[in-house]
Amino acid sequence: MTPPNTARRRETSRRAILTATFDLLQEVEYAKISIEGIASRAGVGKQTIYRWWPSKGAVVFDAFLMLSEGAEGGPVRLPDSGDLAADLTMVLRATVEELTDPRYEQPMRALATEIAHDSELAAAYAERLDGPLREAKRERLRSAQRAGQLADDLDLDVAVDLIWGPLFQRWLHRGGPLTTDWTDRLVATALDGLRPRR
Amino acid sequence: MTPPNTARRRETSRRAILTATFDLLQEVEYAKISIEGIASRAGVGKQTIYRWWPSKGAVVFDAFLMLSEGAEGGPVRLPDSGDLAADLTMVLRATVEELTDPRYEQPMRALATEIAHDSELAAAYAERLDGPLREAKRERLRSAQRAGQLADDLDLDVAVDLIWGPLFQRWLHRGGPLTTDWTDRLVATALDGLRPRR
Amino acid sequence: MTPPNTARRRETSRRAILTATFDLLQEVEYAKISIEGIASRAGVGKQTIYRWWPSKGAVVFDAFLMLSEGAEGGPVRLPDSGDLAADLTMVLRATVEELTDPRYEQPMRALATEIAHDSELAAAYAERLDGPLREAKRERLRSAQRAGQLADDLDLDVAVDLIWGPLFQRWLHRGGPLTTDWTDRLVATALDGLRPRR
Amino acid sequence: MTPPNTARRRETSRRAILTATFDLLQEVEYAKISIEGIASRAGVGKQTIYRWWPSKGAVVFDAFLMLSEGAEGGPVRLPDSGDLAADLTMVLRATVEELTDPRYEQPMRALATEIAHDSELAAAYAERLDGPLREAKRERLRSAQRAGQLADDLDLDVAVDLIWGPLFQRWLHRGGPLTTDWTDRLVATALDGLRPRR
DNA sequence: ATATAATCGAGACGGTACGTCAGGTCTTGCT
DNA sequence: AGCAAGACCTGACGTACCGTCTCGATTATAT
Q1: Fold exhibited by the domain C84-192
Q2: For A82, phi and psi rounded to 5 degrees?
Q3: Which tens digit of pLDDT belongs to each residue from C174-191?
């Protein structure tokens, strides 16, 4: 994602570009964001963007990366109180909070749709951004599995998809309101399954 | 979605535009499709598009609508052999087939991302395109519920999300390969839930 | 200038079009006047204009024709007090008045430049609009010639051009201010010639 | 007539645009010339035209300017054989030749009518294009005046208008054929005046 | 008085050009 | 060498009009 020799690269320009990008994402519709706009907002020549990023999506992606690296101190962990249902409920509620936060909603939709169209970006996303988070989710489930709260033969990847897939889908496609009621039922249903339990 | 008086509208132009749109969606990346391109491909003046549709997304949407209306004869129904697991497995495999069909993949990604950015479009999608299909899904589950195969207190809407949400999410975000193996495990896990039975 | 059978033609529409045209000429730059604009201002279908006039210039021309026919009662005559210099001075001052009248300046510039580009229109202009006026000018000079105030062998057509040519030229090309001082000197110089007398 | 900083301007583009403009003026009716047409003929982006010229008329004007600057070597001078009538006759015949030359007629009509509608352009024309020529005309007359061939109190500006005004007027408004016979009579009448001598 | 046919208003249509915005490349000095 | 600045060619935007073409709904004779 950064072709030439990084040595002489000016760090201040890089940060200015990524910050300007993220700021713009919050302010205007994604489709209306332009390289020119980013450059002028960042006080940077267009060439400086084209030199270091192959596409607008890549800039957006790096803007998120910068943000997440800034936030992070050490590996991500999901809460583990021993009560899986309670922990999941809490995490999903927090996720909903973030997804509907006006500061992040538009930028995240932008990232999501860029990924949908660009498989290289999708791979980078899977590795750099989603990877650690997904591992944390898997880890929390593994812990529950060890505690006998989940089926032994459960495919943890499928399980992660089963819980978070519906949430992201509903959010991205506006399938309905993201209420706590809904997330709570989602967790319960995923844990118990559709079939009647005795 | 169609502002002026529809009376004098020329049906041949309308069809030409929608057909051209869908054809283009298969050939070139969505972002590179232009109103100008659609108009010239359809042999139509640009104004004729701007007169009847408010945005590129709306045209794309109507192109899908035309397609689905053409295909449909009566209400959509999911197979009902009495064996829910088998039926769902089959339907999901077919869905995967469609989602990865080169003719439809790009157009459907385009539609999905347009919906993600335009809530009006999302509403129209929910009502006109996804609505009947979702009702069919719910109906199949209701039938199973009546047969005692699903929990009595199951929220069918959540159930639908639980099965199809992960699928669409994995497809759209390229979360991994869409193999029959994965869909089969998805169905099984959704039906049984994450918790151990017995 | 009016092709089909004039019998069934609606006179009210014709007048509305010509009036609207002349009004528009006063209000907006000639280049910005459109058939659509005239039609909508006149409350008339575009086809009604296209049916009866071959070009925008022709409509403008007819608008002038209508005006001049309205004004006229009998043939045009220039004043003839017996004092040619005085009469010409007066007439030229009046002409300047008209050429710089804000109600007429723009429309007349429009007509003048249409004529410059369309020789058919120029012929119609020469015959219907300029013709009678030019004949009146010639007649006034002929009268002076009979009175021995002009050279016997004078070509009256050249004489008319010599007096009014410079005026129109200065007006149309904005060669300088059209003051009474200038017109008076023009008349005097034209009458006496450039060469020294005696 | 040239807004931004001229420093970075590409001279090749400028010349291509002006040349293309002049060429087009010879080929097609002025009203049918478009910025788009000029740009494509010149192999230039439209923006490059809009960047440096405010209007189509300004481009046309500069095209003429380029031509006249190319032709010129030093200040313009009218022939001075000592015989004013002969010299003027010759010059007017040459002017007629030029005005009716198929290469220049349409372009010059275009320039003339642009000037008629745009007073800024008219001012630029008066200063840059017509100015030197008019001074040459005045100078020739001044020389004749010194030689006692013209009245001492003659206003040379009026005199210039008296000779060339009728010519341009007849040409632009197609007032009649531009024969040598007519121009010769024009010169004679202007010199002698309308009043009888002796 | 009624049929009948041209004219009318309205405005959709396939086009062309408008003047603007942005994309991505290239060039020019400055640091 | 990287950079800010910005000119350049390209292509698309959304709008305004072009001149043609239906549509009913008036008229104004010609039956």
Answers
A1: Tetracycline Repressor; domain 2 (1.10.357)
A2: 100, -30
A3: 999 999 999 999 999 999
